[in-house]
UniProtKB/TrEMBL annotation:
Belongs to the glycosyl hydrolase 9 (cellulase E) family. It comes from Lentzea cavernae. Residues 749-856 form the CBM2 domain. Pfam families: CBM_2 (PF00553), CBM_4_9 (PF02018), CelD_N (PF02927), Glyco_hydro_9 (PF00759). PROSITE patterns: CBM2 (PS51173), GH9_3 (PS00698). This is Endoglucanase. Keywords: Carbohydrate metabolism, Cellulose degradation, Glycosidase, Hydrolase, Polysaccharide degradation, Signal.
């Protein structure tokens, strides 16, 4: 879906290469060391080119356009890094090649970093006719998989421009089969590397072939044993390749830090028993989106000096900018669009409507769900460290709006939405956003993108109605226009071959997007036309919800979630059927998880572990969470936390896939700015960034080289070049944000004080409400004055009040006693109230003089 860019090297690379022995070793095996030597995929990955050279795969060949006028052969290069060599072993380097104009080239093997030691090189003269070339050498150096070994073609030292094409490139030899090893050390006692929440189940996995129970010991940070017990043997776990036991230490519930779990001589990484880390993760996972903003500077006051950067793609050289972007030349759409803003989709600089759509929906749904069945105070104004944190609007809505506004800009004059906008060609790794000099191009409009726009704009209109009525109306108009356009163009599909410079994101089925968009429009407007489209859909009543979950290309369950949460005019029995379907699929997940060595809500029965598997785990955790919301059953809540435990380290790699969380956490995300692995002056992935996770298809060269033969759950490596397993993406972090926000809400509320009770009741009409608040002193000491505090979970605002001095900042409300009712003796009650406007659930947490009260 995304392409691996080149790893560019210094101009002196391979200058020291010398010829080596041509004698073959009798022990050599026929192990191919080069990846993508035939170029059959149509991609150049992982072949890179140096300055002055442009790679293109044409007609099944890699053709390099070389700028003339260089001095040395090594001044113009194409090559591949990470090639493994073994000292003393024989290799045969062979290839087909031709040149537009005859010239000499040098084929070389050696070291890709200083001091650039050479293993072997040989010069050949190319002609316009394709020829086969070959030479054999014995390696004098030893480079492991994905190490510093390299093969390259030196193309420079010529006075004129030329084009050199190579094909069927092969380096065969060595005695060690490539791949099969993940460099991250794994423990035999696998735990959540971050924390277990008090009061909830606490399980770990022991890797052991023992068929009998093993004794486990839980130790505190001082190394003192605080609990012990026996493991439960589970046997072979095919998905991980491990033989496992399960350890359940739920009976121990003392909060603390630095616990370890051990069996014999084997000990886990340290972890906490605390609700605090998941509450931090709720915000760190959302901070990811500010980092990914395009078209605005990322300021140190919000992210720190390490992650601050200038605005990208705003027409400041070398950027060509996003303010006046044309369509691809072959489309000739006849207009340009200003598409500044939005989020960079992933590790590249593309912005994609279908991926941005589901990511935005998920953030907005987290807010809507919290206002209707949860507690939205966590998302109030000032909760996130973003520039809009004091504008009176809930910060989660502010962050989502950054992408919603971009989606609106992607709407073409006819109402359709362009599928994506990105660079004309893949940029190098690393490339800071403000240093990207590639032209920017709009891809064609598509039905899927148009329906994403319709769905998200309708959803956003509903949520902004009480915040900004004019903006809400603008959103609804865009949503209606998009839906009408999509119905007029029901099968305008994205081109699956449009993958140069950005991911294709092709989708050949859009009935799910139609259902989703109709559901959002119906929930927002109540219009019969949208209702008819909803009820007539083959996806109605969660018909397509299953253990496979939902994703950017399978969006029907998003409509189901909205219809189950947002008030609408559907029959109660139909809404109940949707909720029942969520519980049914959640039960299927729990049944499957009970048999797993590393419990995760994931169905690997058909495609194995796929690109972005961690987001599938978390989207399925959202299904479990909603099943808990709909039924109240604790088993579904526990399943959500099991999913988080898997993502945060209870997995066969002993790795937290969330940057900054746990002693062995993802660091080297595939990203063009968080590229410390390639450039020490750049940062690593910031805390709260989610890696895509195991991908058993091994769809990038680094993964192919390192992970050949890996069991499904072990097909992952923390390498910046392993984009099919270790990229980040907005729709993956939106899943983490939704689930961690839900989990933080369920991880415990402040212990209520025994000094006060508060009772809240409200009558409502249209956009108004009138609330009565009863405050009782249940303590033993009299109050001389009091101050009530609470936060609205929705868009409500106080317009007038009585029996107190009322004030409101954002969603935070305070009511301070008057001169005549401040003195309250134990057992006495004060009645106050207010009139207001806006919508949302009643506030659920109240304080008096800073202490949390019981709610009556």
């Amino acid at each position: 879906m995304r392409s691996q860019p080149p790893r560019l090297l210094t101009a002196t690379l391979l200058a020291a290469l010398t010829a080596a022995s041509l004698h073959a070793s009798a022990a050599a095996a026929d192990y191919e060391r080069v990846l993508n030597g035939t170029f059959e995929s149509g991609s150049a990955d992982p072949w890179w080119s140096s300055a002055g050279v442009t790679n293109r795969v044409t007609g099944g060949e890699l053709c390099a356009a070389v700028t003339g006028g260089t001095t040395n052969p090594w001044d113009a290069l194409i090559g591949q890094n990470g090639v493994p060599f073994e000292t003393g072993q024989s290799y045969t380097f062979s290839f087909d090649a031709r040149a537009t104009a005859a010239q000499p080239v040098t084929a070389a093997a050696g070291e890709s970093v200083s001091p650039y030691r050479g293993i072997a090189s040989q010069q050949f003269t190319l002609s316009p006719e394709k020829q086969r070339f070959s030479f054999t050498f014995t390696s004098t150096l030893d480079f492991p998989d994905a190490g510093n070994g390299q093969v390259a073609f030196q193309l420079g030292g010529q006075p004129s421009d030329n084009t050199i094409c190579v094909d069927n490139v092969s380096v065969v030899g060595g005695v060690k089969p490539p791949g099969g090893v993940n460099p991250n050390p794994a423990k035999k006692v696998q735990v959540d590397l971050v924390a277990y929440v008090p009061g909830l189940p606490k399980r770990a996995t022991l890797v052991s072939t023992a068929t009998t129970a093993q004794t486990w010991t839980l130790k505190n940070s001082a190394g003192v044993a605080v609990a012990s017990g026996q493991s439960t043997p589970k046997g072979a776990d095919a998905t991980s390749g491990d033989s496992v036991h399960v350890i359940d230490f739920s009976s121990f519930d003392t909060a603390g830090t630095g616990y370890t779990l051990s069996v014999g001589e084997d000990s886990s990484f340290p972890f906490d028993i605390s609700a605090d880390p998941v509450k931090r993760l709720r915000y760190d996972s959302l901070a990811f989106f500010y980092h990914q903003r395009s078209g605005t500077p990322i300021e140190a006051q919000y992210v720190g000096d390490e992650y601050a950067r200038p605005a990208g793609h705003v027409n400041v050289a070398p950027n060509q900018g996003d303010n006046n972007v044309p369509c691809r030349a072959d489309l000739a759409c006849g207009y340009t669009l200003d598409v500044r803003g939005g989020w960079y989709d992933a590790g590249d600089h593309g912005k994609y409507v279908v991926n941005g759509g589901i990511a935005t929906w998920q953030l907005l749904n987290a807010y809507e769900r919290a206002t209707r069945v949860g507690d939205a105070t966590a998302y109030r104004d000032g909760s996130l460290n973003i520039p809009e944190k004091a504008n009176g609007v809930p910060d989660l809505l502010d962050e989502a709006r950054w992408e919603v506004d971009f989606l609106l800009k992607m709407q073409a004059p006819d109402g359709m939405a362009h599928h994506k906008i990105h660079d004309a060609n893949w940029t190098a790794l690393p490339t800071r956003p403000e240093l990207d000099d590639q032209p920017r191009r709009l891809s064609a409009t598509s039905t899927a993108a148009t329906l994403n726009l319709a769905a998200v704009a309708a959803q956003a209109s509903r949520l902004w109605k009480g915040v900004d009525a004019a903006y809400s109306a603008t959103l609804l108009a865009a949503a209606r226009k998009a839906y009408t356009a999509a119905k007029a163009n029901p099968a305008k599909l994205a081109d699956p071959n449009d993958g140069t410079g950005g991911g294709a994101y092709s989708d050949d089925t859009v009935t799910d997007e139609f259902y989703w968009a109709a559901s959002e429009l119906y929930a927002t407007t109540g219009d019969n036309a949208y209702r008819t489209d909803v009820t007539a859909s083959s996806h109605y009543k969660a018909a397509s919800l299953n253990r496979g979950g939902f994703h950017w290309g399978g969006t029907a369950p998003l409509g189901d979630i909205t219809l189950a949460l947002a008030p609408n005019g559907l029959p109660a029995a139909d809404v109940s059927a949707i909720k029942t379907a969520f519980a049914s699929v959640a039960d299927q997940h729990l049944t499957a998880m009970a048999g797993m060595g590393y419990a995760a809500p994931y169905d690997n029965s058909t495609a194995g572990y796929v690109w972005g598997s961690n987001s599938t785990v978390l989207n399925n955790a959202q299904v479990l969470a909603l099943a808990h919301d709909f039924t109240g059953a604790a088993k579904y809540r526990d399943g959500v936390f099991e999913a988080l435990h898997y993502v945060l380290g209870r997995n066969p790699l002993s790795t937290s896939y969330v940057a900054g969380y746990g002693d062995q956490a993802m660091v080297n995300a595939h990203h063009r700015f968080w590229a410390h692995q390639n450039d020490p002056t750049l940062p690593i992935a910031p805390p709260g960034s989610l890696s895509g996770g195991p991908n058993s298809a091994l769809q990038d060269p680094v993964a192919q080289r390192l992970l050949a033969g890996c069991p499904q759950q072990k097909c992952w490596v923390d390498d910046i070049g392993a984009y099919s397993v270790n990229e980040v993406a907005v729709n993956w972090n939106s899943a983490l944000a939704w689930v961690s926000g839900w989990a933080a809400e369920k991880a415990g509320t402040p212990t209520p004080s025994s000094d006060c009770d508060v009772s809240f009741s409200a009558g409502r009409w249209n956009d108004g409400l009138s609330a009565q608040v009863k405050i009782t002193n249940t303590g033993t000491a009299a109050w001389t004055s009091w101050k009530l505090g609470f936060a609205f979970p929705g868009t409500q605002r106080v317009t007038s009040g009585w029996s107190a001095t009322w004030s409101q900042t954002g969603r935070d409300v305070t009511a301070t006693s008057m001169s005549w009712n401040g003195a309250v003796k134990p057992g006495q009650t004060v009645h106050i109230g207010f009139n207001g406007a806006g919508s949302g659930a009643d506030p659920s947490t109240f304080t008096i003089n800073g202490k949390t009260c019981r709610t009556a």
